[in-house]
Structure formats: structure tokens, C-alpha cells
Design brief:
- The protein is mainly beta.
- Helix content is 0%, strand content 50%.
- The chain has no helices and 11 strands.
- Strand 5 and strand 6 form a beta hairpin.
- It starts with a strand and ends with a strand.
- 30% of the residues are buried.
- The mean pLDDT is 96.
């Protein structure tokens, strides 16, 4: 079992930056693929970014590619999402998620952190 705690959200003007953090409890953090998702009001949750267990491989949705960067520190059991050049359409609740080895997919979720980008 793992618990995820998201933090770092807030209110920022368009063009600004934020860095989200997701701290994981429990052991075996380095064995989990980690990801970030977001959900805007009235919309379905959507994929934002994913990072491999070692951190060597990342992938992004087209809407954030080139502006956001996902990273992880396995010694600190933490995954980050650096968000630059923010746009009003990035406004959403952002969630980190963990995908442990084996079947099951995204089995663990953080509580979410609100990001609001003003125009």
C-alpha cells in the first residue's frame, strides 16, 4: 500500500510557473511508474505526464509538451511536475498517481492540488 500527498498548487498569472510535488509513503517507490493527471470543472480526468521507475523515460500529452517537465527523486520518494508558460486552460485539479508492477494500472492516487491560471 502507498499513500500519495500532492502539494504545490496555487493561483498564478498566465505565463507564470508552478512546481507540483507528490510525496509517497511506504516502500518500493522506485518500483512504481508515476504519472500526473488533471481534471478541469465539468471535464473528464486527463493524462498529463508519465515517468518511468528510474526516471529515464518520460512522456507528455500534446497540450503540455515543451512547457511541463516531470521528474522524480527516488531517494526522497517524491515526483515533481514543473509547469512553465502556464495558460488559463491549464486550470484544473492536478493528481499524481502510481502504477505498481504487474496488472492493475494506476492503483494509487493523491488527493489533488488546485492550479488556477488567471488571464
Amino acid at each position: 500500500q502507498v499513500q500519495l500527498v500532492d502539494s504545490g498548487g496555487g493561483l498564478v498569472q498566465a505565463g507564470g510557473s508552478l512546481r507540483l510535488s507528490c510525496a509517497a509513503s511506504g516502500r518500493s517507490f522506485s518500483s512504481y511508474t508515476m504519472g500526473w493527471f488533471r481534471q478541469a470543472p465539468g471535464k473528464e480526468r486527463q493524462f498529463v505526464a508519465i515517468i518511468s521507475r528510474s526516471g529515464g523515460t518520460t512522456s507528455y500529452s500534446d497540450s503540455v509538451k515543451g512547457r511541463f517537465a516531470i521528474s522524480r527523486d527516488n531517494d526522497k520518494n517524491t515526483v515533481y511536475l514543473q509547469m512553465n508558460s502556464l495558460k488559463p486552460e491549464d486550470t484544473a485539479v492536478y493528481y499524481c498517481a502510481a502504477d505498481p508492477p504487474g496488472p492493475g494500472g494506476w492503483s494509487y492516487w493523491g488527493q489533488g492540488t488546485q492550479v488556477t491560471v488567471s488571464s
